UniProtKB/TrEMBL annotation:
Residues of the signal peptide: none
Enzyme category, top tier: transferase
Cross-referenced SMART domains: RHOD (SM00450)
Catalytic activity: thiosulfate + hydrogen cyanide = thiocyanate + sulfite + 2 H(+)
InterPro entries xrefs: Rhodanese-like_dom, Rhodanese-like_dom_sf, Thiosulfate_sulfurtransferase
Superkingdom of the organism of origin: Bacteria
GO MF assignments: thiosulfate-cyanide sulfurtransferase activity
Stated name of the protein: thiosulfate sulfurtransferase
Gene3D superfamilies the record matches: Rhodanese-like domain (3.40.250.10)
Domain Rhodanese: 54-169, 198-309
EC number, UniProt record: 2.8.1.1
Positions in coiled-coil regions: none
Pfam families the UniProt entry points to: Rhodanese (PF00581)
Length: 309
C-alpha cells in the first residue's frame, strides 16, 4: 500500500508541478508588507517567530511532503503531503471520489500513524504563493476532523528559514498516537451533486491562474475552462512579494472588488481543492463565514458537467 501511495503522489506531483507560481503576487513593497499596520491576523495563522519560540510545544508539519523535506526542512517538522490524507490511491483524477478527504476511520489511522495528536497545537507550513496552499488543504482537513488548535505559518518555509530556525534534510518522525474521528464537519465542504443541485444559491470562486481559467488544459483535466459564471480571484493575489499574506483589509477589498459579500454563500475551487482550501480559510479569517471548499474541484466538474471558456 505504501508503494502505491508513493507512486500516486509522485504521479500527481509531476502532473501539476509549477501551477502555484503561474501568477506573480501583485502587492506592495516588502517594507510595507511587513509593517505592523499591514500584517495579516487570523485564528489560523502564526508568524515564523511564534514557531521559533514554541517549537518544543507544537507539532510542526511540512505540508510540502517528503520529497521537498529531503532537500531541506525545519529540523523538527513532520513531512506530510496532502495526498496522504486524500483518496488518490485508486482511479484517476476526475473520478468520483479521487482527491476527496479520506473517510473518518482511515483518516484517523493515517493521522495516528504520523503522531498527529488531537490534543496538541498543530502548525503547518508550505511554500506560500510559490506552492499550492498545501498547508491550507491539510489544515482544512484537520479542522473538519475535529482538531481544535490548527495554524499555518504566514510566509511559509522561507519565513521560517529567515527567522533563523534550524533546518536539516528529511524532517522527523513522531511516535504513533491514537486518533479518533467519528465524523467530518461538513460546514466548509461541498460535493459535486450538492453544488450542482443548489448552484444558483452560491457565488462560485475560481482561484486558479489566468491560463487555467481561460481554458488551457495544463494538468490532465478532462477539458479546459471554468465553472459556469465563476468569479476569478487568483490564489497568488492574496500574497505579498515576500510570501506573507496581505493585510486583512486589503484581502477583504480584493474579495469585495470581485463582487463577493460577507453575507454571500460562496464556493471556492481550483484544480484539486488545494489552493481553494487555503482560500476558504483566509476568507473565513476575513469575515466571510459562509464559504465552502469544493475538494472535487475542476478535475471532477470538468469530467461530468459543462464548463465555460
Amino acid at each position: 500500500m505504501k508503494k502505491v501511495l508513493t507512486l500516486a503522489v509522485l504521479a500527481f506531483g509531476l502532473t501539476i508541478t509549477g501551477c502555484g507560481s503561474s501568477n506573480d503576487a501583485t502587492d506592495d513593497s516588502t517594507k510595507e508588507a511587513t509593517s505592523p499596520k499591514t500584517t495579516f491576523k487570523g485564528e489560523y495563522t502564526v508568524d515564523a517567530d511564534y514557531v521559533k519560540n514554541n517549537l518544543d510545544d507544537i507539532i510542526l508539519i511540512d505540508a510540502r511532503g517528503d520529497d521537498a523535506a529531503k532537500k531541506g526542512t525545519v529540523k523538527k517538522a513532520v513531512p506530510m503531503a496532502w495526498q496522504y490524507l486524500a483518496d488518490v490511491e485508486s482511479g484517476a483524477s476526475g473520478d468520483e471520489n479521487w482527491g476527496l478527504v479520506l473517510e473518518p476511520k482511515k483518516l484517523a489511522e493515517r493521522l495516528g500513524d504520523k503522531g498527529i495528536d488531537k490534543d496538541k497545537e498543530v502548525v503547518l507550513f508550505a511554500s506560500a504563493q510559490d506552492g499550492w496552499g498545501d498547508d491550507g488543504r491539510i489544515a482544512w482537513e484537520l479542522l473538519a476532523a475535529g482538531y481544535k488548535d490548527v495554524k499555518m505559518v504566514d510566509g511559509g518555509f522561507s519565513a521560517l528559514k529567515d527567522a533563523g530556525i534550524k533546518t536539516n534534510k528529511g524532517g522527523t518522525e513522531l511516535k504513533p498516537v491514537d486518533v479518533e474521528i467519528d465524523s467530518l464537519n461538513q460546514d466548509h465542504m461541498i460535493k459535486t451533486d450538492e453544488l450542482k443541485a443548489d448552484y444558483d444559491e452560491y457565488k462560485v470562486v475560481d482561484v486558479r491562474a489566468d491560463e487555467e481559467y481561460n481554458g488551457e488544459v495544463l494538468y490532465g483535466e478532462a477539458k479546459g475552462g471554468h465553472l459556469p459564471g465563476a468569479i476569478q480571484v487568483r490564489y497568488t493575489d492574496m500574497f505579498n512579494k515576500n510570501g506573507t499574506l496581505k493585510s486583512n483589509e486589503k484581502l477583504t477589498k480584493l474579495f469585495e472588488d470581485a463582487g463577493l459579500s460577507k453575507d454571500d454563500k460562496i464556493v471556492t475551487y481550483c484544480t484539486a481543492g488545494i489552493r481553494s482550501a487555503y482560500t476558504q480559510l483566509v476568507m473565513d479569517m476575513c469575515g466571510f463565514k459562509n464559504v465552502k471548499n469544493y475538494d472535487g474541484s475542476f478535475y471532477r466538474w470538468a469530467k461530468v458537467e459543462d464548463v465555460e471558456k
